[in-house]
C-alpha cells in the first residue's frame, strides 16, 4: 500500500517543495492545507497515514490541529511537526497534544522522506535524547497534571525500569545491553508500556516519564 500524506503549512512554496520531495519518492500527497482548520478537514476527508504539520499558522495553529486530529483519528494518523527552531516552546506543546515527533524545516530531502516513513511505521521520529531536551526545558511536574495520566502502578517493576531508562535517552539496543535482555524482549516491554498507558509512541512515553516524576529534569544516563 502506498503511503498517504497531508502537508499543512501556510507558505505555498514550502508545501510545493515538500510535495515534490515526497512524490518523487513514491509518497502520495493526498491534500495540502494552509492553516490548522484546513488540515483537520483534510485529514477527516482523506484519512492519511502522516500529516506534516507546521506550528504557526493562521486561523488555527498546528498545536490545536494536532490535538483535534489525534483525538478524532485515534492511532490511525500520525502527526509530524515542522518547526523553524530547534527548541521551540511550541514543539513541547505539540508533543503533549499527540504529535509523534518533529522536524526542522531545513532538513534534507532524504531526511524528510525517511522521517515520514519512520513515523508511518509506528515509531517515534525524534531520538529520545532530543525529546528529553525539550521536556527538561518545558515540562514542569505538577500533581494536578500528573493525575490526568494513567496510574504508573499498572506497570510491572521491570516495565517501570525500562520506562525510566528509555526516558534518559537509551535506544532499544542500549536498553537490551543495560538490562541484559534480548532486543526482542526489550521491544515487547516497550510495546506493553505503551499499551498499558495508552500512549502513541516513545515520544509520549518520555514526556509522561517527566510529567509524572518518574525521572527528574537533569537526570542523565547512569
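Sequence proposed for the structure above (222 residues):
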Amino acid at each position: 500500500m502506498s503511503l498517504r500524506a497531508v502537508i499543512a503549512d501556510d507558505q505555498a512554496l514550502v508545501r510545493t517543495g515538500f510535495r515534490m520531495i515526497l512524490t518523487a519518492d513514491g509518497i502520495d500527497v493526498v491534500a495540502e492545507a494552509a492553516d490548522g482548520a484546513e488540515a483537520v478537514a483534510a485529514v477527516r476527508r482523506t484519512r492519511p497515514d502522516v500529516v506534516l504539520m507546521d506550528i504557526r499558522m493562521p486561523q488555527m495553529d498546528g498545536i490545536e490541529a494536532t490535538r483535534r486530529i489525534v483525538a478524532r483519528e485515534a492511532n490511525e494518523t500520525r502527526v509530524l511537526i515542522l518547526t523553524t527552531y530547534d527548541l521551540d516552546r511550541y514543539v513541547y506543546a505539540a508533543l503533549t497534544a499527540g504529535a509523534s515527533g518533529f522536524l526542522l524545516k531545513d532538513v534534507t530531502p532524504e531526511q524528510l522522506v525517511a522521517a515520514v516513513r519512520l513515523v508511518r511505521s509506528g515509531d517515534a521520529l525524534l531520538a529520545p535524547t532530543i525529546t528529553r531536551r525539550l521536556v527538561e526545558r518545558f515540562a514542569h511536574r505538577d500533581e494536578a497534571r500528573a493525575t490526568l495520566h494513567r496510574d504508573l502502578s499498572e506497570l510491572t517493576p521491570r516495565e517501570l525500569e525500562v520506562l525510566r531508562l528509555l526516558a534518559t535517552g537509551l535506544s532499544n539496543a542500549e536498553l537490551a545491553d543495560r538490562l541484559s535482555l534480548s532486543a526482542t524482549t526489550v521491544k515487547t516491554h516497550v510495546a506493553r508500556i505503551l499499551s498499558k498507558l495508552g500512549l502513541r509512541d516513545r515520544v509520549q512515553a518520555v514526556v509522561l516519564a517527566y510529567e509524572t516524576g518518574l525521572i527528574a529534569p537533569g537526570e542523565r544516563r547512569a
